[in-house]
Structures are given as structure tokens and as C-alpha cells.
Amino acid sequence: MKSTLCQASLMLALPIFLAACDPLPQRGPITVAPAGAPSTAADYVIGPGDTLQVFVHRAPELTTDVPVRPDGRISIPLAGDIEAAGRTPTELSRQLEQQLREFIREPTVTVIVRSFVGLTSRQIRIVGEAAQPRSIPFREGLTVLDVLIQGGGLTRYASGNRARIIRREHETNPPQIIPVRLNDLLRSGDISQDVPLRPGDTLVIPQGWF
What are the two backbone dihedrals, phi and then psi, of residue 54, each rounded to the nearest 5 degrees? Predict the structure, then answer.
């Protein structure tokens, strides 16, 4: 009887033991995006007035913060004057590496934009009765509300519902005028007036009639 109970116990324990010894289930292959794959966001284009940090790996004496001059160029030790405006930080990094190969073995350069102004043709301007009229670097997804926030909102004299966006698709074509009702956007929450902006747009806020 005792032997029969032992055999029964072994029979019950055997499946549990075998399950514990089974190898872990196989997972599918892990997919890694290749280096240098294109990003879905548009790359920032450097413009005059930007401030760049140029970092040269293993050469701290060449690492520096440098402004982009009005002529669009920067001056880097050993590399001399380099055209920066109109290039992305990655493109400028590769150009600097080419320039420094004469002096450094396998240079690795990283360019970081410290302060943003951007090309004039890619700036958004807010003029008229904004609390702080200014030019704003364009970025993907920028809307009228974003620009108003950065411009400090409207003055007390603004006629917000008579505002308009001036857009030039091509220099040879007449500008496109897009009416936008800022009071309805700010006071009534009319999201339909939160118009997406494009590089080079100008938001004009007129003064009200008193």
C-alpha cells in the first residue's frame, strides 16, 4: 500500500517537474532601426543669429560656442571660416570633420544649436497689436495659438477678429491673405481659428477702431 502511494505521488509530481525544465518560449527577432534612418520630423536649418556649440571629441581645445554671423558663416580654430547657414547641424558636423581631417586623425564633431533664430525665410513674424511683436523660428506643428503665446497675447487696443495671416508661397506670386478671428480663439475657444502656420508666414494684428 505504501509503495502504491509513493508511485502515485511520483506520477503527480512528474508533469510539474517536466514543465519546470522546459526551455523558455522562443521570442521573435528584435528589429532595430538602422543608424542614419530618416526622421519623420523636419531637420532644423541653421540661420544667421543662431548660437552653436561645436564639440570635437578628444580635442577639448577646439570645443567652443560660436555665433553664426550675419553672413551665415562661423569661425572654428584650424577649420577657418565655414558656411553654416542653410545647413542642418548634422550636415555642418560632417563638413567640419572633413575640414579637420588634415589636423586630427578621424575627428568626430557634434554641432548643437544653443539658441534658435533660423533662416529669415523660415521665421514666423507677429506684428501689430501683439504684446511683444517678434520673429519666431518655425518648427513643425506651429499654430496661431503658439505664436500668440510667445508674443504675449494681444494688447488692449487689438482688433483680434480682424487679424490675418500673410503667406507667400512663391516670391513671384501675390501673397495669400488668410483671415483669422483671434478673439474667438482666445475668448470663446474656437479651435477652428488655430490655423497651422508655414515658414515665412506673417500674423498681422490690426488696431481696433475707437
Answer: -105, 115
48 and 73 Cβ atoms separated by less than 8 Å: no
Match 503667406 to its residue by C-alpha cell.
167
167 φ/ψ angles, rounded to the nearest 5 degrees: -125, 130
- How many other CB atoms are there within 10 angstroms of residue 84's CB atom? 27
- C-alpha cell of 191? 479651435
Cβ partners under 8 Å of residue 181, min gap 6: 160, 161, 163, 190, 193
Contact 172, 153 (CB under 8 A): no
CB-based contacts of 42, cutoff 8 Å, min separation 6: 140
Place of cell 526551455: 23
Only one residue has cell 560660436, namely 66
Considering the entire predicted model, what is its pTM? 0.57
Per-residue pLDDT tens digits of the chain, which is 210 residues long: 444 444 444 454 444 444 444 443 343 333 333 333 333 335 788 988 899 999 999 888 999 999 999 899 999 989 889 999 999 999 999 999 999 999 999 999 999 999 877 777 888 999 999 999 998 888 889 999 999 999 999 999 999 999 999 998 777 788 999 999 999 999 999 999 999 999 999 999 999 875
Q: For the chain, report the end-to-end CA distance as a whole number of angstroms.
A: 109
Dist. CA 48–CA 168, nearest whole Å = 21
Spatial separation of the C-alpha atoms in residues 107 and 109, rounded to whole Å: 6
